[in-house]
Amino acid sequence: MTPALTVLLCLGLSVGSRTQVQAGTLPKPTIWAEPGSVVPWEAPVTIWCQGSLKAQEYLLYKERYSGTWNRQPELEFKDKAKFSITHMTDVHAGQYHCYYRITTAWSNPSDPLELVVTGMHSKPSLSVLPSSIVPSGGNVTLQCVSWTGFHRFVLMKEGQRQLFWTRNSQQAPSMRFWALFPVGPVIPSLMWTFRCYGYYSNTPQEWSLPSDPLELLISGVLGKPSLRIQQSPVVTSGQNLTLQCLSDVSYDRFVLSKEGARDLLHRHGWQSQAGLSGADFPLGPVGPFHRGRYTCYGGHNLSSQWSASSGPLDILVAGQFPYTPSLQVQPGPTVAPGENVTLLCQSLSSVDIFLLSKEGAANPPLRLRSKYSSGLYQAEFSMSPVTSAHRGTYRCYGSFNTSPYLLSHPSVPVKILVSGSSGHHGPPPTISSPTAAPAQGPSWYLYVLIGSSVAFILMLCLLILFLVRQQRRGKCRKSRDADPEPKDRGLQDSSSPAATTQEETLYAAVQDTWPEEGVELDHRKNTQDEEPHGDMYAQAAASDAPPDVTYAQLNHLTLRQKTSASSPSQSGEPPAEPSVYAALAIH
Q1: Cα-based distances in Å from 381 to 366, 378, 397, 534, 568
Q2: What is the Cα–Cα distance from 305 to 189, expressed in whole angstroms?
Q3: Which N-terminal stretch is annotated as signal sequence (predicted)?
Q4: Angle at the Cα of 59 (from 55 to 60), degrees rounded to 5?
Q5: Quick check: 309 and 258 in contact, CB under 8 A?
């Protein structure tokens, strides 16, 4: 056997060997186990026995076991000896004493050490009543429950000293076995983490697996955080839901508590650059079991001190009742600022409470008790005076007093428009001071952009129309210039050499019968088609010629002239020279 006694052999004391020990002449030693006397199955444990510096031998004795002494004559330490168990089993469970010897004298036996092995049975569950959030100095009751018929339950407080309390089990009508352990008053300076076990009375050192740990949170010591939700607190089944706990105190961890629930959700905290700490609690796809009132707390690692409770947040699950209420706006959906508006929620089915929710608002919905009138359950939600903050989309729901967090299907949405207001339908703007400028939405930019676009399009259309018209007129002018003049109109110009001069004028004899045979003014050409220097003018002048002849000064570049034989004058005498006639068409 090695001096360290790495394996604890069969221990005990026979009657014969007991008579060989002269016990009681020396002070008793001290016995303990490391890391503790409650040892999981197959885990190592060391039993220490401390006596005197003059001790020459140590003995370890296990009660109710027929075997021999476990002796350690060669000591590694002068005043104590250790006995190691490398793999804890039910064989090693029991009560132990130790002795030491100086020369021929033996010490009195040490106090008993009860070595317990755990993991022999299925684990129980541990809960707290009324809540694991306990104010400083408060009292709670812990409940250990199991479907296994244990005779006794053990409550153990974790820490440097393993404290435990034992209670007889009781059987509930549901065939469960349970025991209650009152705890308190709790103080913030200590850690309050517990586990419970169950065992049978015939094997008191063979315990079950431990329950999950339960930590009591001592609240109200530190500053409270805030609990919020990104979307509306009215949710539907299948929708994803995440709650966020925030604080300006640098907390290391956060917990989320639901009213009436025994379990807490724990999350490690994160730190933001803005100096805030927080934690996100994703609750997954929403179901009816997510309904209820939530609060959150912040705390530090390795401390039982926690913050005060955040404000409550109610999560409402819609679509849980078969009926659908209706929603009406009176006098109408479009109202002016300062006027009054009423939203009337009605239902043919029995309803205890009506709730009015605004789309996109994180605030809790408004609640009103229903009134029965004319065969309908109804409630009137009045808004007065109306401001731009009231614009938005509204829905109403029905609920019952027995299940206030479960709602009916939503009504058809109703939209309230505030005349003279613009912008989006989000939450109302926050005014920081009386002199703050009124909030303006971005829609006036849209109006300016639309107006500018319309004006630009109109100008572009006019420009395109003008260019098309000019192009068509140019084509018409070219076609007329290319076509030959009809023969009855005569030659276009005189063969006189003076016709090549742009500003040279011609004098034509115009008879007093000019509408038929005289000068015809051609108005078929628009003035826009004329050449820059093609000004046409007719100037009637009085001369010494006979009164039946009128002279017209004409610009030869704009007139189509014809030379014809001189017609006989009224007197019957032929003219001395041929006359030049300018045909002016007048229409």
Answers
A1: 8, 10, 13, 82, 106
A2: 8
A3: 1-23
A4: 135
A5: no
Q: What amino acid occupies position 348?
A: L
Q: What's the rounded Cα separation, in Å, for the pair 61 and 10?
A: 10
Mean pLDDT of 403-426: 81
User: Which tokens go with 426?
Assistant: 């989000």
Inform me whether the pLDDT recorded for 380 exceeds 70: yes
Task: Tell me: cis bond preceding 325? Omega within 30 of 0 counts.
Answer: no
**234-236 and 313-321 beta bridge pairing:** parallel
In 3D space, the residue among 26, 15, 209 whose CA is nearest the CA of residue 102 turns out to be 26
The one-letter code for the residue type at 53 is L
Dihedral over alpha carbons 88, 89, 94, 97 (to 10 degrees): -40
What is the token pair recorded at 449?
């952009």
Answer whether 45's CB lies under 8 Å from 114's CB.
no
DSSP state of 497: G
Contact 119, 197 (CB under 8 A): no
- Among 494, 538, 506, 503, residue whose Cα is nearest residue 520: 538
pLDDT tens-digit readout, 539-586: 333 334 444 444 444 444 444 444 444 444 444 444 444 444 444 444
CA distances from 369 to 322, 396, 493 (A): 19, 13, 104
Report the C-alpha gap between 416 and 359 in whole angstroms. Answer: 11
Q: Which two tokens stand for residue 103?
A: 């020369």
Q: Can you count the helices (H) and strands (E) in the chain?
A: 2, 44
Q: In the β-sheet with 45-50, what is the strand arrangement from edge to edge?
A: 30-34, 45-50, 80-85
Q: Which has the higher per-residue pLDDT, 54 or 65? A: 54
Residues 159-217 pLDDT 10s: 767 788 999 999 988 889 999 999 988 887 777 899 999 999 999 999 999 999 998 88
Query: pLDDT for 434-461, tens place per residue?
Result: 333 333 333 334 555 677 788 889 888 8
Backbone angles phi, psi at 256, to 5 degrees: -115, 125
Q: What is the pLDDT of residues 138-153, one digit of tens each?
A: 899 999 999 999 999 9
d(CA 99, CA 107): 6
Closest to 39 measured CA to CA, from 83, 91, 93, 111: 93
Tell me which residue has tokens 């250990």: 144
Q: How far is CA 325 from the centre of its chain?
A: 28
Task: Give the amino acid at 455.
Answer: A
3-state SS of 294-324 is: EEEEEECCCCCEEECCCCCEEEEEEEEECCC
Whole-number pLDDT of residue 535: 41
CA dist 452 to 445, 457, 466, Å?
Answer: 11, 9, 21
Q: CB under 8 Å, gap of 24 or more: what pairs does 575-581 form?
A: 579/508, 579/509, 580/494, 580/506, 580/507, 580/508, 580/509, 581/490, 581/508, 581/509, 581/518, 581/519
